[in-house]
Specification:
With 347 residues, the protein is an alpha/beta fold. The protein has a single domain, classed as TIM Barrel, CATH 3.20.20. Helix content is 50%, strand content 12%. The protein is built from 15 helices and nine strands. The strands form two sheets. Strands 1-4-5-6-7-8-9 form a seven-stranded parallel β-sheet. Helix 6 packs parallel to helix 9 and helix 9 runs parallel beside helix 10. The mean pLDDT is 96.
Length: 347
C-alpha cells in the first residue's frame, strides 16, 4: 500500500487525513436485497452460490449498483475452510450451517490440507473477476474466519449458545486442540494469500465468537493464531492492510491490537467510543460501529447516531461500518440514507 493511492479505504488504512471516512458494511451483499434473493434462488444451494464465480461476483457487485460504497467484500463464507478440509457441511433452512462435529484429536485424521485449493479455486476466480469489475474507486476486501471462530463450528457442529463441546476440549486436551488450530492457521494463511494473489487489496479476519473465552484462553486461542497468520502474510506482503474483528472482547481489545499486528480493528456495537478513541485509535485505524438494528429502524435516529459516531472518532483514522453484519430485515432505502448521510458529512 502506498500513500499515492486514490482509493479512500486504502488512504484511511494508511492514516491519511481525509474529509470524510470511507465506508462499507459487513454483509452489504446479502439477504436484505431482493436482487440477492433472486440470484440465491437461481444458484441452488448456498454453497453452490459461494463456489460459482460468476454468481458470487454478481452478488458482490449488487450493493455497489445501489450505493456509492468505498469497498466491496468478497462474497463467500467463513466455513469454506472446513468444507475444503473435508468436513461435511450443509446449510439447512432455518438452522444455518450444520457440520459433522469433530470432538477429539484422533478425529482430525479425516481432514486434509493437501487439496484445499482444489476446492477453493472458484473463490480465487471470483476475487480475480472482481479485481477487474469493481469501480475504480472501490477497494476489494478478501476475508476469512479466524481459527477460533471456525473451530467453534467444527467442534460444536453448528452455532452454539454455550460452547460446551469446544470448551471441554480446550480445557481437557489443549495439546490435542492445538493440532486442530495448527491445521486452521495453516489453511487460513494459505487461503488468504491466494486471495491476495488473485487481487484482494485488504484482508479482514472475522473472529465472531472471540468474546466467549476467558482472558488466558483468549490470548492462546484468539491472539496467538491471529498473530501467526498475520506474521506469515506479512513475510510475503509486508505492507498489506489487515483488519481484525474480535467481536465482544471488551478490554481484551487492547491486547489484541498490540499483539497481533493488525492495521485496523473493527469495533462491535457495544464498544464505548470515547474509550476506543482514547485506548485503541492511537495505535490502529478503527472501523465501526453502528448498531445493525439502527439501520433497520432508519430515519433521524439513525442519522443522529451516524453523526455521533463520526464525531466521536473524528480525532484519528476511521472507517465507518456497522458493529456487526447487516440483517435480513434491513430496508434497502435505509442503507441509501446511510450512504447519503456519510457522503454529505465533512470533518
Amino acid at each position: 500500500m502506498t500513500t499515492s493511492s486514490t482509493k479512500r479505504l486504502l488512504q484511511a488504512l494508511n492514516k491519511q487525513e481525509l474529509d470524510r471516512p470511507p465506508f462499507w458494511l459487513m454483509r452489504q451483499a446479502g439477504r436484505y436485497l431482493p436482487e440477492y434473493k433472486q440470484t440465491r434462488a437461481n444458484a441452488g444451494s448456498f454453497l453452490d452460490l459461494c463456489y460459482n464465480p460468476s454468481l458470487a461476483e454478481e452478488v458482490t457487485l449488487q450493493p455497489l449498483r445501489r450505493y456509492d460504497l468505498d469497498a466491496a467484500i468478497l462474497f463467500a463464507d467463513i466455513l469454506l475452510i472446513p468444507d475444503a478440509l473435508g468436513q461435511p457441511l450443509a446449510y439447512k433452512e432455518g438452522e444455518g450451517p450444520v457440520l459433522d462435529p469433530i470432538s477429539s484429536a484422533k478425529e482430525l485424521a479425516g481432514l486434509s490440507v493437501e487439496k484445499i485449493h482444489d476446492r477453493l479455486n472458484p473463490v480465487y476466480e471470483t476475487v480475480n473477476r472482481l479485481s477487474s469489475s469493481l469501480p475504480d474507486h472501490c477497494t476489494l476486501i478478501g476475508f476469512a474466519g479466524a481459527p477460533w471462530t471456525v473451530a467453534t463450528y467444527m467442534v460444536e457442529g453448528r452455532g452454539s449458545k454455550d460452547y460446551v463441546a469446544i470448551k471441554k476440549w480446550i480445557y481437557s486436551d489443549p495439546d490435542g486442540f492445538q493440532k486442530l488450530m495448527d491445521i486452521l492457521i495453516f489453511s487460513t494463511t494459505e487461503y488468504l494469500l491466494k486471495q491476495v494473489e488473485a487481487g484482494a487489496e485488504v484482508l479482514q479476519i472475522f473472529d465472531t465468537w472471540a468474546g466467549v473465552l476467558p482472558d488466558v484462553e483468549f490470548k492462546k486461542w484468539v491472539i496467538e493464531p491471529t498473530r501467526k497468520i498475520i506474521d506469515a502474510i506479512r513475510k510475503i506482503h509486508p505492507d498489506l492492510p489487515i483488519i481484525g474483528f474480535p467481536k465482544g472482547v471488551g478490554g481484551n481489545l487492547i491486547d489484541f491490537v498490540k499483539s497481533t499486528g493488525v492495521t485496523a480493528v473493527s469495533l462491535d456495537t457495544a464498544t464505548p467510543l470515547p474509550w476506543a478513541a482514547r485506548e485503541i485509535q492511537p495505535h490502529v485505524v478503527v472501523q465501526g460501529n453502528l448498531d445493525p438494528i439502527s439501520l433497520v429502524i432508519g430515519g433521524q435516529a439513525m442519522v443522529d447516531r451516524i453523526h455521533q459516531i463520526l464525531e466521536e472518532l473524528s480525532g484519528g483514522a476511521h472507517i465507518f461500518n456497522l458493529g456487526h453484519g447487516i440483517i435480513p430485515q434491513t430496508p434497502p432505502e435505509n442503507v441509501a440514507l446511510l450512504a447519503e448521510t456519510l457522503h454529505n458529512w465533512k470533518k
